[in-house]
Amino acid sequence: MEIRSFNPPVRTLMGPGPSDVHPRILEAISRPTIGHLDPLFVGMMEEVKKLLQYAFQTDNTLTMPVSAPGSAGMETCFANLVEPGDKVIVCQNGVFGGRMKENVERCGGVAVMVEDEWGTAVDPQKLEDALKANPDSKLVAFVHAETSTGAQSDAKTLVGLAHKYNCLTIVDAVTSLGGTPLKVDVWGIDAIYSGTQKCLSCTPGISPVSFNEHAQEKIRNRKTKVQSWFMDLNLVMGYWGSGAKRSYHHTAPVNALYALHEALLMLREEGLENAWNRHLRNHQALKAGLEAMGLSFIVPEADRLPQLNAVSIPQGVDDALVRGRLLNEYNLEIGAGLGALAGKVWRIGLMGHASRPENILLCVAALEAVLSDLGADIRTGVALSAVQKELGPRS
Amino acid sequence: MEIRSFNPPVRTLMGPGPSDVHPRILEAISRPTIGHLDPLFVGMMEEVKKLLQYAFQTDNTLTMPVSAPGSAGMETCFANLVEPGDKVIVCQNGVFGGRMKENVERCGGVAVMVEDEWGTAVDPQKLEDALKANPDSKLVAFVHAETSTGAQSDAKTLVGLAHKYNCLTIVDAVTSLGGTPLKVDVWGIDAIYSGTQKCLSCTPGISPVSFNEHAQEKIRNRKTKVQSWFMDLNLVMGYWGSGAKRSYHHTAPVNALYALHEALLMLREEGLENAWNRHLRNHQALKAGLEAMGLSFIVPEADRLPQLNAVSIPQGVDDALVRGRLLNEYNLEIGAGLGALAGKVWRIGLMGHASRPENILLCVAALEAVLSDLGADIRTGVALSAVQKELGPRS
Q1: Architecture of domain A22-268 in this structure
Q2: Do B106 and A229 touch (CB under 8 A)?
């Protein structure tokens, strides 16, 4: 097997993540590696924590990046907060709610499922019914931004309901952080996890998490040890905690954290509200183009995530063929459907650095060209001007 | 808090890891991010697996990088192979054997400890005694290269004993992979994990693992689910397995894997045996210099790891002060002692790209300068020539 250095092509990443990584971040990740206990690195860790507090809009002291992808961030929340026998209400309206159920059960908890149709938001009424029917519940878990469908749930309301029935909350913000309003402290979210490779536009592999005082208290008062050594926050905090004395836990992914530091700095430079507005504006432009072509969104307008656009694949069109042609002919990646939606939808991401007018124009133009070449039943010649109109003057 | 882009200094990394990262690897990690399901990325994943098989000297099909640091690689082995109630013999001769015990217990297993003095190799006789006394044991776990002490154990003999008593083996090769002879198939190791930031000289954050058929069979025949969703090999293999159809599990750390691909390619270019010999040669030169200065190794010569040199701190010398001066005045990082050895030893790494004559000369010269400036009881003026003599002609 002849193996040479791997030189990836330059793709435009408009799938469900990773999103386009800004050159500043790619440059940051290649800076010289220093020791993970080097005082300068420790200083940078403190800055990463501060910047994450800003991104999450929280003062939580326990705010840090888990040294592994989002699914490990998810597991960090469940492994630390769920004790054997704990009843956890899990709201499922897509793939990731199902993964939460797996997490609850593998931690020895009992999952009570609240199911909503894929592509819709979590119904607060159903959650309240479940809370009433299960007064011994300890936790409520839900996905703020369902990456598998593009539906956004009303996190503030769901957290309020959970608290009304004395439950703590675990919120999946993998796709929402940096892309759509998310206010950890104002909404009272107890535990939250995200990923670097979505609206932060950072390289994939790290999972920011945050825990408020209530969550920390539950962790401190556990009757049993956290089943994962790697994810045990009591140990991780000895390393990420403040104070001069840090105890070694694991070797931090030094360069990946350079990248995250730079990505978070860019978010702060832009300003959270500006980033949220940009994601919304660009979504409107993409939507105008796709709808002009005749494609339709699967999520009701009020629940749509601006950064993750799930549209139905036109009848008779071969999903994989279209995605393959976009990739090979235009270096453009869009996402396939996941789980029950596989083969039925495309997921078009406008996340972080990928949420730009240039990308929207490329995507709409390429999709129109490929679909019309395949004889799909779409309107041609109108999408790009619809996008331009929505984008407005570029001066 | 004023936060700017983080520009690390250029350090020479001669601690217990991360080691110096070669510029080729830093360049590779900054290449454009592509999708984790992109056919070109999937092709690269296959190459990473092949290159890891070479590094581990194995044909194991289940050979891949875990998307998290070495301690997650450790946990992947234990979480998949230990079922509740399983008795596991853990040989401890340093910090990491203690972490293995934690892992066994958190997986619901029963750990039987075989203790050896820190700084010595695991005693095969003690292991055999424990195996005889515990005929119901399922697994034997030990550390091949104890990063906390610099002692190397006879993995081949220990694995042979475990098999004689029908136990599978879990081997920690975090510090040995690429630095000292390690032959997974010839020695019959059943499950093994390593790290990227030691003798592979790659950026930290990824953990290569490998499982043979016996280990895979035990995993397939588990009566209980693996307690970690993120680390469940039955799921991870759906993503890393061969074949055209890959199922999404988590988002791979794309850029970190570019780096690992390049690091493994460099190891193959050099050749494993050449790398092992280089580590040994450079160890001899460092040793000549340190001993000429009057410093002494804590590990008996026969058990010494060439890539991790633990020496006693001379009496009356302030550990942290010396390491701080080396870092601030020479941009040189050496390691502190861990656990019971904290404050008593320095750990000087000669790992991967850091295992070079230039580094040895810098380290010996800087250490001599700082120690003599502090009035430590060492011999001066002889160490560098001892190093040069050992290195031989440089032409």
Answers
A1: 3-Layer(aba) Sandwich (3.40)
A2: yes
CA dihedral A139, A143, A144, A147 (to 10 degrees): 170
Q: What is the pLDDT of residues A16-63, one digit of tens each?
A: 999 999 999 999 999 999 999 999 999 999 999 999 999 999 999 999
Q: Distance, in angstroms, between B120 CA and closest chain A CA?
A: 22
A176-189 tens-digit pLDDT: 999 999 999 999 99
Chain B interface mutation, best of A255, A260, A329, A351, highest count of B Cβ atoms under 10 Å: A255
Q: Does A238 touch chain B (CB under 8 A)?
A: no
Angle value at C-alpha B234, between B41 and B113, nearest 5 degrees: 115
Report pTM. Answer: 0.97
> What percentage of chain A carries pLDDT values higher than 70?
98
| A 289-328 → B contacts, CB under 8 A | 327
Mean pLDDT for chain A overall? 96
Element (DSSP H or E) covering residue A210: strand A207-211
Interchain CB contact of A10 with B (< 8 Å): yes
Q: Which A positions 263-282 lie with beta carbon below 8 A of chain B?
A: 265, 268
Q: What is the CA radius of gyration of chain B?
A: 21
Q: Mutating which of B250, B327, B333 best tests the A interface, going by the most A Cβ atoms within 10 A?
A: B250
Mean pLDDT of residues grouped by 10 in chain B (395 residues)? 93 97 98 97 96 98 96 98 98 96 98 97 98 98 97 98 98 98 98 98 98 96 96 86 72 97 98 98 98 98 97 97 98 94 97 98 98 97 97 82
Which pair of structure tokens corresponds to residue A364? Answer: 């709409």
The CA-CA-CA angle for residues A93, A98, A101, to 5°, reads 120
**pLDDT at position A340, please?**
87
CB-based contact B30 A35, cutoff 8 Å: no
* Identity at A71, one-letter amino acid code: S
Structure token pair of residue A311:
């549209």
Binding-face residues of B in 173-212 toward A, CB within 8 A: 195, 197, 203-206
Taking residues A132-146, what's their average pLDDT?
A: 98
Whether the Cβ atoms of residue A366 and residue A330 lie closer than 8 Å to each other: yes
- Which residues of chain B make contact with A17, given a CB cutoff of 8 A? 251
B-chain residues near A333 (CB < 8 A) = 34-35, 38
Could you state, in order of their start, the residue ranges of all structural domains in chain A?
A: 22-268, 272-391
C-alpha to C-alpha distance for A95 and A340, rounded to whole angstroms: 8
Cα dihedral: A43, A49, A50, A53 (round 10): 180
Residues of A within 8 A of B5 (CB-CB) are 24, 28, 261-262, 265
A272-391 topology per CATH: Aspartate Aminotransferase, domain 1 (3.90.1150)
CB contact under 8 A, B103 and A21: no
**pLDDT tens for residues A327-375?**
999 999 999 999 889 999 999 999 999 999 999 999 999 999 999 999 9
